[in-house]
Design brief:
By secondary structure, the protein is an alpha/beta fold. Helices cover 30% and strands 25% of the residues. It has two domains: 283 residues, 3-Layer(bba) Sandwich (FAD/NAD(P)-binding domain), CATH 3.50.50; 194 residues, FAD/NAD(P)-binding domain. Strands 1, 2, 3, 4, 5, 6, 19, 20 and 23 form a nine-stranded mixed beta sheet that branches. Strands 8-17-9-10-13 form a five-stranded parallel beta sheet. The longest helix is centred in the middle third of the chain and has 25 residues. This is Flavin-containing monooxygenase. Pfam families: FMO-like, NAD_binding_8. Keywords: FAD, Flavoprotein, Monooxygenase, Oxidoreductase.
Length: 490
């Protein structure tokens, strides 16, 4: 049992406390402010800036891997011509959203929430946050976690043999040095995910040559950075009217692509292969370098705007090597095949570490909450944890699509509690026949390494984390709130 929070140092009470000032947190705050103008809320942000992921990552070429018609907020149209946007443009969009409605004034920067204790007697949370060398303690009626699931202070790097011998520079994308100069140098990017396929073409403009070294391939598809249909609709109808149409067009496209990948994987493989044959040099070894041993969308598919990765390969500025590392050497890498890769700079785009709810220790009436022993209710609340919600986005579509729906649901829930005079809501599982599954049923390595530390999902509704926006739209935005699972009390 964790020691009790020291209630004597409580500084204030907040109706809704949001943790995280990234894409999800700013969107949640906007909806709460619009729906409940008289309700107090605040955002605790551990870092010193708005933007979350989009402020943290500073590597060359950082961009979205979802179109901005769906990664953008439902309530604020994305007006730039580029649908696949770069990181600085997305960061500006999030910050502008916060500034224009005064949400930025509700953010407490440098407040890292370490623990939160629920008291049924008081029907509130007591939340403890580190602020520099001080500890800030507040109470809140509802705790809303929008911190995502990445660990912000460290990325994942495997234990490579011989790194101490390498005379060049080793860089992880999560901690990109501002003064890194790779002009005219040989660069090796280790990895094959979204970060790697972004870095390789972006660095190839200045580097002598960039090699993407991968253990195994990833499915990669090219899309236009500027969507001609979306931009045509904008010119015809204007931003406000065209945005929901373009948003639904892209939702429909991604849904059909995902469902087709699940049901007709051979057809999707054939389509991707033909597109790659057109984009790559004649006779390129697609089987080795771009054909994974799993089906499309068993892991997240990487998007390359305007085929920039394929173009860099075609122009000889970049190459792909599929092999395993034996050891780092003084001048680069020795591979299992026996070949050598020379390098001046090695970028370990080897993945992320996950951290559930920002590492916050939760207790309910003095009992520590063991996250793996909880069930996720509708993919956004925890069993036996009162007045608590969290945001986890889709793995097969834009994160913000789900974040918007969770914020909608939280607002509906708070309004319902106001109308009925309830002060407490808590999901409770009384069905012993429900079996559990990992929260994210996703084969990516960064998920598999840490998913056992997260809550679980169940085999039946409402304990399932859905990956269908259309289904969630019905259940979260329009479905009934009261059921046999969600318990209300005063």
């Amino acid at each position: 049992m964790l020691p009790s929070v020291r209630r004597s140092v409580v500084t204030e009470h907040i109706d809704v406390l949001i943790v995280g000032a990234g894409l999800s947190g700013i969107g949640a705050a906007h909806q709460i402010q619009a729906r409940f103008p008289g309700r107090s809320f605040a955002i605790f942000e551990s870092r010193d800036a708005i933007g979350g992921t989009w402020d943290l990552f500073r590597y060359p070429g950082i961009r979205s891997d979802s179109d901005m018609q769906t990664l953008g907020y439902r309530f604020r149209p994305w007006t730039d011509e580029k649908s696949i946007a770069d990181g600085p443009a997305i960061l500006k969009y999030v910050r502008d959203t916060a500034r224009e409605t005064g949400i930025d004034e509700r953010i407490r920067f440098g407040h890292r929430v370490n623990r939160a204790e629920w008291s049924s007697e008081d029907a509130q949370w007591t939340v403890e946050a580190a602020h520099g060398d001080d500890t800030v303690t507040v109470t809140c009626g509802f705790l809303y976690i929008c911190s995502g699931y990445y660990r912000y202070d460290e990325g994942f790097t495997p234990n490579f043999e011989g790194t101490e011998r390498f005379r060049g520079q080793i860089v992880h994308p999560q901690h990109w040095p501002e003064d890194l100069d790779y002009t005219g140098k040989k660069v090796v990017v280790i990895g094959s995910g979204a970060t790697a396929v972004t870095l390789v073409p972006s660095m190839s403009d200045r580097a002598d040559h960039v090699t993407m070294l991968q253990r195994s391939p990833t499915y990669i598809a090219a899309l236009p950075a500027k969507d001609p249909i979306t931009n045509g609709l904008r010119r015809l109808l204007g931003d406000r009217l065209s945005y929901p149409i373009a948003r639904w067009k892209n939702v429909a496209f991604s849904t059909v692509t995902y469902q087709l990948s699940q049901r007709q994987p051979r057809l999707v493989k054939m389509f991707l292969r033909k597109a790659q044959q057109r984009a790559l040099p004649a006779g390129y070894d697609i089987d080795t370098h771009f054909t994974p041993n799993y089906n499309p969308w068993d892991q997240r598919m990487c998007l390359v705007p305007d085929g920039d990765l394929f173009r860099a390969i075609r122009h000889g500025k970049a190459s792909v090597v599929t092999d395993r590392i034996t050891t780092f050497t003084e001048d680069g890498l020795e591979l299992e095949s026996g070949s050598q890769l020379e390098a001046d700079v090695i970028v370990t785009a080897t993945g992320l570490n996950l951290l559930a709810f920002g590492g916050i220790a939760l207790t309910v009436d003095g009992r520590e909450v063991s996250l793996p022993n909880t069930l996720a209710y509708k993919g956004m609340m925890l069993s036996d944890v009162p007045n608590f919600a969290f945001t986890v986005g889709y793995t097969n579509a834009s994160w913000t699509l789900k974040a918007d729906l969770v914020a909608d649901y939280v607002c509906r829930l708070l309004a319902h509690m106001d109308e009925q005079g309830h002060t407490v809501c808590v999901p409770t599982n009384d069905d012993p026949t429900i079996t559990t599954r990992p929260l994210l049923d996703f084969a990516a390595g960064y998920v598999q390494r840490s998913i056992d530390e997260f809550p679980r999902t169940g085999t039946r509704a409402p304990w399932q984390l859905g990956m269908s926006y259309a289904h969630d739209l019905v259940t979260l935005r329009h479905g009934r709130l009261e059921d046999d699972v969600l318990q209300f009390s005063s």
